[in-house]
Amino acid sequence: MFKTVQWITMMLLFSIPLMAQQVITGTVRNRDTKEPVPAVSVTMKDGPNGDYTNDQGHFRFSTRKQYPITLIFTCIGFESQTMELKSPGAIQVTLTPASVLGKEVVVSASRNIQKKIESPVTIERIGNRDIINSPQPSYYNMLQGLKGVDITTSSLTFTTVTTRGFNTSGNTNFTQIVDGMDNQAPGLNFALGAAIGLTELDVDNLELLSGASSALYGSRGLNGTMVMTGKDPFKYQGLSLQVTQGVNHIQKGKSNDPLGPSPYYDYTLRWAKKINDRFAFKVNLQYIQAKDWIAADTTNTNSLGSRYTDPNYNGVNLYGSKTSVDINPFLEGALAMNPDLGPLITPLLDTSHYVARTGYPEYQYLSSDAKLFKANAELRYKIKPGLEAIGSATYAKGNAVYSNDTRYALTGYYLTQYRLELKAQHWFVRAYTTQENSGRTVIASPTAQLINEAWKPSYDANSGDGWYPQYTGALLEAMAGGQSYESASWTARQFADQGRPAAGSALFNHLKDSIAGMPTSQGGTLFLDKSRLYNAEAQYNFGHLFKFAEIIAGLNYRLYKLDSKGTLFPDNNGPINVAEYSAYAQATKKVIHNKLSLSAAFRYDKNTLFEKPRVTTRTSGVLELAKESFLRFSYQNAYSFPSNIQALQSTPIDYNSFASGGSTRLLNGVYQFDKFQPYTLESVQKYQQSGNADSLVKFQPKDIMPQSVDAFELGWSSLIGGKVLVDVLGYYSTWKNFIGYVNVANTPGTNDVTAFKNHNTYVQYNIAYNGAETVNTYGYAASIGVDLSKNFMAKFNFSSDFLKNRNNSQINNFNTPNYKFNIDFGNDGFGKKQRYSFNTTFRYRPAYFYQIGFASGTVNASAVLDAQISYKLLQAHSKIKLGATNLTNTYYRTGFGSPAIGAMYYVSFAYNVF
């Protein structure tokens, strides 16, 4: 008996590992080209086991299930396939290519997986295949071709995205989320474009929600939300490399471009490996270096005259000339010293005579060295089937320029993000932090003004000398010699500017470095921003527990630790903590034989800077009219807490010091400016054309409040005959407590020349405040995609946005043309073994008015053509791409005061990128 039991026990012990070692292996190839197909999902029917094919098309996994075994193969761009295995052995599978039109799935629209065509709100999607075939060398710039999307390119490495009209550099009302992490810089509250985003080779997909999205994604989602997802190292394996080299600034002198042909470099590497069925990792590196686009708009913001005819000339991209003074007190002083000048001076005193100091052009003042380095590492461990632990770290460092109240050159800034996450089929728990360091930031306008003052003060009360006294003396001498006032003004400027250091000279750089290296709290212009963000969130999907509806709910806690050493925030005594608490829930129910999907979302948010919490909602309905044809309707109430800079008073510079005269500075939020005697401008545009003090009225500040919007949308999506995808929509929004900006001036002029040092100049700065008027926006859009067979695809989209009840007392940043359209035509595989591919995109924008803090004006119409053609080296598993952006080299701008963008021609070599 004992031997029998012993024998049975031994058989059981041997049978267990035998069952555990059942191994399924094979290779998946493209039926047409015979190429390996990576990232194919291989799953077992009625079982938890499976794998993804690697970069060679191989898959391998183990299972305890006995034969026969049914496998299911799925991959975007291919028809799904089912195969039954009756015995062991490596298998060969070929997948048939299929159109992806209308088959795309999205997650961000409802925080649930669904087909894009069935989404309850407008959503645009860019997938990995779109990026590979794009003529844009950067996936981020592909966004400008999407329906309803506006961008502002402030520099080569910094692009700001928005939807439905409110477009400006550094938009705080557009949310960018990467792998679940809010991408905003903690102190500035906006994302620095692709700086801290995914590297080019690690983008699985990005989804862009148009318009309000606060109900699911929280504050600052009024103008849209973009959700980026990186590649899963279990799914996308192997070593990938992409090298792009090109040239920009093709034609020196065109559109005031001071540079000649300059090299562009972009090196990107991705390595991902699945160690075993449980553990995988990935590493990403990217480095970009080029000469930046140059902002060189010389349009006079004070009048229509040129630098030769207008003494008060202030060019858009010239810095230092915001120091503007009425020289009448100096004329009066000269008359008092020499009454014989009466016939010359007395007629001049009938009107004001504003004179600006000479500005420096952006080139050789702000660095044109565009650099960006990004590194990312991620570890994934499957604790058990359906439960995964993820840890990641991301680092980015570079140079960029963005526009606001002036141009800001961020030199050597860096951001880091760290994430820990537990993710299961029905829930996730995530914690992450963002660490910011502003590096060495040069603030263009005030730095240039201080350089002028350091070289030669505008007026020295002790000696009575200075730039303006010298200018006035030379002006009178030239007029006495018979010159007109305009000609004499140019002569006087040349005299007063004698010995002035040229941009880029040793003396200029010394002055710039000393001023830009001194914190704003000590009289310089350096930001010392090392703010941090800490975020913890959790979400649970109750869909498997409740049959009557699919319900998701989540919690979020966020802490801003603002640390600028008094240079951005009033935090001289230590970091300021600002916390946000959030809870949200969404219920979705299908009725009428599953033809109508109804959804309602609710969100509660509390910010510690504001007494009252915010409650927002979203309701939507999607009706299936016919097969692959859906009508959608949504109402969204969205909100935005003011940004931290808007909500907290910035530490002011000594505004009684002329050295800071004329600078523009963000002083917002809980206003305590009575001692500064702020004056608002009756007409912002009028002030930009004239420095006349008569246009100033007393500014009455109030505490800033959150803004909100009620948005309605009606849309229709349909896939017709499997070949034509159509999407049309219309929207109408009502904004309350709309946050805009106003230009204000401090200390209106005086005729007392002895008090010139403290008066008789405008200290101009921007204040954010809530407009009393209700603001409305509305628009419509349409897109059509056509599968022309044999891998040819054509796309067209059109969109239109309008602002109603514009508040002319505010700078509202509604910077978009009334209409715009994009055309895309390409083929991702033709010729023998589909070695060739190409793509062309065309974007048209009519002229439109653009408002920004330091200047406003017309952005000229643009018609931009991008193109690329590629060739596959099948045996080397590589691809060569020859491409061009702005092929015709017709310079254009995406924002007033932003750089002019010319052509860039490039060649790219990609290994293992398909």
List strands and helices in order, with pairings:
Elements: H1 2-20, E1 22-30, E2 41-44, E3 50-52, E4 58-63, E5 69-74, E6 81-85, E7 91-95, E8 105-106, E9 114-115, E10 123-127, H2 128-132, E11 149-155, E12 158-163, E13 175-178, E14 181-182, E15 203-210, H3 214-217, E16 224-230, E17 238-248, E18 262-274, E19 279-291, E20 318-319, E21 324-326, H4 328-337, H5 342-345, E22 354-356, E23 360-361, E24 369-384, E25 387-403, E26 407-424, E27 427-437, E28 440-443, H6 444-455, H7 467-480, H8 485-496, H9 506-516, E29 532-541, E30 550-562, E31 576-591, E32 596-607, E33 614-626, E34 629-640, H10 644-647, E35 678-681, H11 684-689, E36 696-698, E37 707-720, E38 724-736, E39 739-746, E40 763-770, E41 775-787, E42 792-804, E43 820-830, E44 836-845, E45 848-852, E46 855-859, E47 862-873, E48 878-885, E49 904-911
Parallel strand pairs: 1-7, 13-16
Antiparallel strand pairs: 1-4, 2-3, 2-5, 5-6, 8-9, 10-15, 11-12, 13-14, 15-16, 17-18, 17-49, 18-19, 19-24, 20-23, 21-22, 24-25, 25-26, 26-27, 26-28, 27-29, 29-30, 30-31, 31-32, 32-33, 33-34, 34-37, 35-36, 35-39, 37-38, 38-41, 39-40, 41-42, 42-43, 43-44, 44-47, 45-46, 47-48, 48-49
Helix pairs in contact: 6-9, 7-8
